[in-house]
Amino acid sequence: MKRFKEKTVVVTGGNKGIGLAIARRFGNEGARLAIASVESNVVEAARSLEDEGIAARGVVCDVTDKEAVRALYDEAEDAFGGVDISVQNAGIITIAKVENLTEQEWDSTMDVNTKGVFLCCQEAIARMRASGKGGRLINTASGQARDGFIYTPHYAASKFGVMGLTQSLAKEVALEGITVNAICPGIIQTDMWDYNDKVWGEMLGDYGPGELMASWVENNVPMKRPGSGADVAGLVTFLASADATYITGQTINVDGGLIMS
Ligand code: NDP
Question: Which of 75, 90, 208, 222 qualifies as a cystine partner to 12, CB 3.0-4.6 A?
Fold first, then answer.
């Protein structure tokens, strides 16, 4: 079933990892995609989606730059007409003890993970309002929006922020046919987790490559496996689908049971 036929979807951080899996799932269900990232390999990522029969544009865009964000949505509209669904997935993480955490790390993490989500929502809402057709916004938070982990206060704060802005925007646009929800992935196997595994692993004990993730999954994830981008894409596409019309302002975990609140 092509749930997203004729729909235009923007996915930030769409060149790899969770974002690319989300884009692919939307594309396989009929959507046209504008995917964005800082790295220019987003253009190749879009081409590879096109090779799979998915209509896709790759746009170089730093989500912390308001003008670049505007240009991203312009390009999506010019290419495909209108923006129906926007997935604010771009994110960064660093890990450091509080005495070593720099102001620059704090600022850049808040800029990408929280301000970047806001700028994209702002742009998407303006276009959804102008079209009069409503729309769907899905913001990527994290398990760290539920329960801050050690050595990442800046990341946890940025993701708690995503939850707050999701709730506030959801109330503001509720009468305009626009829903705004957030998702909290748990331990998802991507480049980001490779970094987490290495740096947390070294800081928390004598863990070799992959051992920290394996240990956390074994001890803390009831389903006893890490998640995949496809697991996250299933939730995102549900929230963007006709089945989720009456769901807004929610933050939903997708983590194999890691966090149950
Ligand atoms: P990756 O590191 O694999 O991908 C991050 C993506 O964000 C890349 O596409 C990257 O683009 C993009 N990005 C970073 N900074 C910017 C920016 N300034 N402007 C535009 N794009 C940017 O991470 P994941 O796929 O694992 O993570 C995706 C999201 O899921 C993030 O928000 C992350 O915080 C969240 N998350 C991930 C979890 C996990 O276990 N993996 C758990 C919980 C949440 P580029 O390659 O160009 O830098």
Answer: 90
